[in-house]
Amino acid sequence: MGISLWLMASSCYAHEAWHWHGYVSQGLIRAQDSNFVNNSGDWSSELTEFGMNASWQLQPSVRIAGQLMYLDGGQRYQKGHRIDYLFVNWTAHSSLDWQFDILVGRFKNMHWLYSSTRDVAMTRPLIVLPQSIYFDAFRDIAVGSDGVAIQSNHTGSFGELELNWSLGATPVSREQSRLVLSRQITGETEQDYVQQLSAFWRPVRSAAQYGISLLDSDFNYRADATDPYVHAWFNVQRFMLNWRYSAERFELSSELMQERIDATGFLAPNFKRVQFAQGAYLLARYQWTPQHAFIASIDKFYANKDDRGGRLLPLQSAGLIAPFFGYQTDLAVAWSYDIQKNLRLKAEMHWIEGTGRLGPNVVPDIAINRSRQHHIMALQLMYWF
User: Fold this and answer.
1) pLDDT at 210 over 50
2) What stretches of the chain show up as alpha helix (H) in DSSP?
């Protein structure tokens, strides 16, 4: 009798501890005068997202979570399936005012405002996030890493303090490399490591949150015998500040970053360049009614903080690269309508000047991206269950 009761209790606990969710979204997108989606600038149905995520509470302090994702975004990122995350979460300590967690596996990037929610269409404020921070060509590398992460949350008289640290690396496919480096590469790219540290502070009785984030990462590129480029090493260091203000029907958020890129090789064996990029956005969301929301953002990016207008680019490329590849300004507006509690329609428009955030970055696509001004229009239907 005792064994039967134990089995019944274990079965009920396992059922309650297992949770899964799914979502699918399909849309239409047009990026005129750029290679953001395709080379033609025509309307495209390559705005497909389908995902399944699940979590299993093995014990009160141990949880397993994962997500399988299918993406088709045209030339924004690699088409196909991927495992966005799959990790074990051990809560080493939990009390009323302090929780400490250790994550092992492919964990999500929790260091930026939208890095842990950008993978799901419904939890993104925009269909196309501000590219200064959330560069789509870098999406799979930035969403998560294979390694170990630590999260700590502490609540006291000062408010709520969240500290995060992670160390890992992400596999980089050749197609992913082509989106970032050059369409002509035939070699392989590897991320040696990425280490991140972040802190978020929410004062007592305040609607605001303040944060800081640091990133350090190394990449290497191994050219093969037929490659037009040579072996290369890249070090990327990013410093970010963020802020969010949340009221009952209104939310403002902003992130500012400075990124140091140290490149050796790739274009030539003796090539060496250190460059500082800067970017920032301001995003506003207003919940007009329970069903209708309006979103607007302004996003700015400069590939070289000492040459914001890109005047050096023609000089450095024998006149091949235009100055507008050195910067990008994006003004976006969007409307979101909840048709049902789990069905949403979103429409979005972007007016963009400059091509500094169109991939590839290292060797830009000057044949397609010939216009200083370009636009994005998108319509996406989202369903979750």
Assistant:
1) yes
2) 2-17, 139-143, 174-180, 312-316
Contact predicate 219/234, CB 8 Å:
yes
Flag whether pLDDT at 16 surpasses 90: no
Residue carrying the six token digits 């799914």:
22
Cα separations in angstroms, 2 against 9, 11, 15, 291, 299: 11, 14, 20, 52, 63
Buried (b) or exposed (e) across 251-284, using 16+ Cβ within 10 A?
Answer: bbbbbbbbbebebbbbeeeeeeeeeebbbbbbbb
DSSP string, 52-119: EEEEEEEETTEEEEEEEEEEE-TTSS--EEEEEEEEEEEEEEE-SSEEEEEEEEEEE--SSSSTTTTT
How distant, in Å, are the alpha carbons of 54, 57, 73, 293 from that of 349? Answer: 33, 41, 17, 15
Residue 284: per-residue pLDDT: 98
In angstroms, the first-to-last Cα distance of the chain is 39
* One CATH from 3.30.930.10, 1.10.10.60, 3.30.540.10, 2.40.160.10 for 18-384: 2.40.160.10
The strand pairing partners of 197, in sequence order, are 165, 214
pLDDT in tens, 257-293: 999 999 999 999 999 999 999 999 999 999 999 999 9
**Is the model more confident about 114 or about 361?**
114
Torsion over CA: 262, 263, 269, 272 (sign): negative
Report the percentage of the chain scoring pLDDT > 70.
96
Rg value, the chain, Cα: 22
At residue 177's C-alpha, the angle toward residues 197 and 190, to 5°, is 55
Provide the residue ranges of all domains of the chain, joining segments of one domain with +: 18-384
Confidence grade of residue 368 (pLDDT, cut at 50, 70, 90)? very high
- Is this prediction's pTM over 0.85? yes
Q: Which residue reads 């680019």 in tokens? A: 313
Q: Averaged over 339-356, what is the pLDDT?
A: 98
Decide if pLDDT at 9 tops 50: no
C-beta separation of 359 from 379 below 8 A: no
How do 272-287 and 98-108 pair as beta strands?
A: unpaired
Place of tokens 């024998």: 318
